[in-house]
Amino acid sequence: MEQRISFMELPKAYMDSLMGIGAYLRKSADVDSKLLELITYRVSQINGCAFCLDMHHKDAIYHGETEQRLHSLPAWRDCPYYSEPERAALELAESLTGKCDVDDAVYANLEKHFTKDQIADLALAVSATNTWNRLNITFRTTPGTYQVNQRAAGSGTSEGQTLAKAHS
Questions:
Q1: Which of 55, 79, 102, 112 ranks highest by number of CB atoms within 10 Å?
Q2: Please, which residues have CB within 8 angstroms of residue 104's CB and are 6 or more apart in sequence?
Q3: What is the per-residue pLDDT across 24-51, written as a single tens digit (0 to 9) for each?
Q4: What is the rounded distance in angstroms from the CA atom of residue 115 to the CA atom of residue 35?
């Protein structure tokens, strides 16, 4: 598949806006990075974003996630190795991604495990990942080029470096 649009072709303000969300989540959010990678990986699975699946899989492993949990993620409800807070966050991710509706039961479950600020950060992470998934699918961004820590690195010149730094 040929890439349609390169993120490097887009205005700086476009990229700065998108990158700002990811920077906030990585530096200021009061949510464990391992949990953030778990939910962003799940959202990318649901949306079928090849670039994001490659990136979030690599980052999740880097942050201590296991292959078993990542492979079982589509069946998280049936697996015993996800914690109750993880289950609440995964339920939020699926609710916002699939039907864009968080009913009272889903929200009440989140409140058992997270503060309001943490719930807001989780919702932002899911929303940002959905945005990145949709952009990468539209642009046909080539997967396989991401290397761990590119998002936190300084400026880069390749498409993968530029996009990976921006993606949350």
A1: 55
A2: none
A3: 998 999 999 999 999 999 999 999 999 9
A4: 15
Stated pTM of the model: 0.87
Alpha carbons 109 and 112: distance in angstroms, whole number: 5
CA atoms within 13 A on the CB side of 140: 5
Q: Cα separation of 102 and 126, whole Å? A: 12
What is the Cα 95 distance to its own chain's centre? 15
Given a cut of 60, whether residue 108 has pLDDT beyond it is yes
9-17 contact pairs (CB < 8 A, 24+): 15/162, 15/166
Q: Return the structure tokens found at 31.
A: 């949510």
What is the reported pLDDT for 44? 97
Contacts of 167 (CB under 8 A, 6+ apart): 18, 22, 52, 55, 132, 151
Q: How far apart are CA 122 and CA 154, in angstroms?
A: 25
* Size (the chain), residues: 168
Q: 61: burial class by Cβ within 10 Å (0-12, 13-18, 19+)?
A: middle
Tell me the two tokens of residue 74. Answer: 């589509």
Q: Which residue has tokens 């039961």?
A: 105
**Closest among 72, 63, 50, 71 to 146, alpha carbons compared:** 50
Distance, CA of 168 to CA of 130 (rounded, Å): 10
